[in-house]
């Protein structure tokens, strides 16, 4: 038997939500360091979806604070955060507070324009700030949907460090992977000769049938790598995905990246498909993992790469970001 609320009750609920006083609300979102896997994957009904697995970077984040006032719209500080303002506006509409006005301040430690997901982090933080300002809860699926509406494609930052295959243009999870990423050290850097790519202004990549079959295999392997906490297997998946990406959105020094990895004991490479970020993965359970990490960072520096950082993923007692 179906049941629905009588319309007078539903109207009263909407009126109550709309008239709810707003308060100062704060939202946060982490960054990522590009992708471990990106391609097309089937859902439970066999339909193909574009999706990705991002490498979380919780050491840096975006913090959005919504300050309600009696202004005419939602403004941002800095003033150039239009996607974040739009995302907050959509969130307030979702929560029945469509007349909300105020100032949205964005404080971020995420470098912009290099593939760290800074735009999505601002958007997700803004949505969470709007929910907090209206003393409301928004589930992750709703945040994803609103984020995609605000910026067309969105990274999986709402899931923090949880491993998922995420349909970035649909805002939904294709698969929740079975656990946390295995312990890793990552040395990240970039080349000034590579630039950020505006993939939203390009036609989506049309993968060949053999590549689609490869993504099916890689999906099974990354599931196994996470279930077994197998960093070398995860590294092989990431390297294979980055190699396929070279056919469509190439990194000029991808060969050098792989050479650094092979010469220094890394277990794989990863890239930001739409930005100049590159990284070498190190199995944190290796007895000399810290030495390997230092050697990789030194090699990248000697070869002229810039913005070299080292960070840990799921490793206890290590420096967060250096």
UniProtKB/TrEMBL annotation:
<feature type="region of interest" description="Disordered">
    <location>
        <begin position="1"/>
        <end position="22"/>
    </location>
</feature>
<keyword id="KW-0614">Plasmid</keyword>
<dbReference type="GO" id="GO:0005524">
    <property type="term" value="F:ATP binding"/>
</dbReference>
<dbReference type="InterPro" id="IPR020568">
    <property type="entry name" value="Ribosomal_Su5_D2-typ_SF"/>
</dbReference>
<dbReference type="InterPro" id="IPR014721">
    <property type="entry name" value="Ribsml_uS5_D2-typ_fold_subgr"/>
</dbReference>
<protein>
    <submittedName>
        <fullName>GHMP kinase</fullName>
    </submittedName>
</protein>
<dbReference type="Pfam" id="PF00288">
    <property type="entry name" value="GHMP_kinases_N"/>
</dbReference>
<feature type="domain" description="GHMP kinase N-terminal">
    <location>
        <begin position="87"/>
        <end position="152"/>
    </location>
</feature>
<dbReference type="GO" id="GO:0016301">
    <property type="term" value="F:kinase activity"/>
</dbReference>
<dbReference type="InterPro" id="IPR012363">
    <property type="entry name" value="PduX"/>
</dbReference>
<keyword id="KW-0418">Kinase</keyword>
<feature type="compositionally biased region" description="Polar residues">
    <location>
        <begin position="1"/>
        <end position="13"/>
    </location>
</feature>
<keyword id="KW-0808">Transferase</keyword>
<dbReference type="InterPro" id="IPR006204">
    <property type="entry name" value="GHMP_kinase_N_dom"/>
</dbReference>
């Amino acid at each position: 038997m179906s049941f629905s609320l009588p319309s007078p009750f539903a109207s009263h609920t909407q009126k109550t939500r709309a008239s709810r006083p707003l308060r100062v609300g704060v939202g946060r979102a982490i960054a990522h360091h590009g992708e471990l896997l990106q391609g097309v994957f089937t859902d439970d009904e066999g339909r193909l979806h574009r999706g990705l697995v991002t490498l979380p970077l919780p050491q840096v984040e975006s913090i959005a604070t919504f300050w309600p006032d009696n202004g005419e719209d939602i403004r941002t500080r800095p003033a150039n955060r239009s996607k974040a303002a739009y995302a907050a506006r959509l969130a307030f509409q979702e929560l029945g507070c469509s007349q909300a006005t105020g100032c949205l301040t964005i404080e971020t430690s995420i470098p912009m324009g290099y593939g760290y997901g800074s735009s999505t982090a601002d958007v997700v933080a803004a949505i969470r700030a709007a929910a907090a300002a209206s003393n409301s809860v928004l589930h992750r699926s709703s945040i994803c949907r609103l984020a995609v509406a605000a910026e067309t494609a969105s990274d999986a930052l709402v899931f923090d460090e949880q491993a998922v295959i995420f349909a970035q243009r649909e805002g939904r999870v294709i698969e929740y992977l079975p656990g946390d990423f295995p312990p890793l050290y990552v040395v990240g850097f970039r080349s000034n000769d590579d630039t950020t790519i505006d993939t939203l202004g390009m036609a989506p990549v049309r993968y060949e049938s053999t590549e689609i079959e490869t993504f099916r295999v890689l999906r099974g392997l990354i599931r196994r790598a996470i279930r077994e906490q197998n960093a070398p297997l995860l590294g092989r998946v990431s390297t294979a995905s980055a190699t396929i990406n070279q056919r469509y959105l190439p990194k000029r020094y991808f060969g050098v990246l792989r050479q650094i990895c092979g010469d220094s004991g890394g277990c794989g490479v990863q890239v930001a498909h739409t930005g100049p970020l590159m990284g070498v993965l190190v199995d944190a359970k290796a007895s000399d993992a810290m030495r390997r990490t230092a050697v990789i960072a030194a090699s990248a520096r000697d070869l002229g790469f810039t913005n070299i950082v080292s960070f840990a993923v799921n490793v206890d007692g290590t420096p967060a970001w250096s």
